[in-house]
Amino acid sequence: MSKHCESGQVSRRTVLLGAAGALPLVALGVTGAHAGKLSQASVNYQKEPHEGKHCSQCNFYIAPSSCKQVDGTIYPNGYCTLFVAKG
Q1: Is-above-0.70 flag for pTM?
Q2: Mind spelling out the 3-state secondary structure of 17-45?
Q3: Which PROSITE patterns would you find in this protein's record (predicted)?
């Protein structure tokens, strides 16, 4: 059976099967099964504050020296481009 209707469009069945196949991938992302962190270099991490912003003020910082998003040792006075102020 062709994946395209006579009009050249993708059939409803193809779309539904594709969506069903993507559901496990979405579930993995939502549950945090993909726990890979970004490298310090990829987020321009530095050990000094930037314009008054530093890691201990960031929503992603985990005391005493970790981050939810960035791999490696994170200093409280450090900074990276992912900075999001605690709310």
Answers
A1: no
A2: HHHHHHHHHHHHHHHCCCCCCECCHHHCC
A3: HIPIP (PS51373), TAT (PS51318)
The 10s digit of each residue's pLDDT in 48-66 is 999 999 999 999 999 999 9
For residue 70, CA distances in Å to 30, 78, 82 come to: 18, 12, 9
What are the structural domains, with CATH classification, of the chain? 1-35 (no CATH), 36-87 (4.10.490.10)
Query: Given its phi and psi angles, is residue 45 left (phi above 0), alpha (psi -120 to 50 degrees) or beta?
Result: beta
Pick from 58, 77, 54: nearest CA to 68: 58
CA distance 41 to 19: 35
| 27, amino acid identity | A
pLDDT tens-digit readout, 23-36: 554 444 443 433 69
Q: Which tokens go with 28?
A: 């993995």
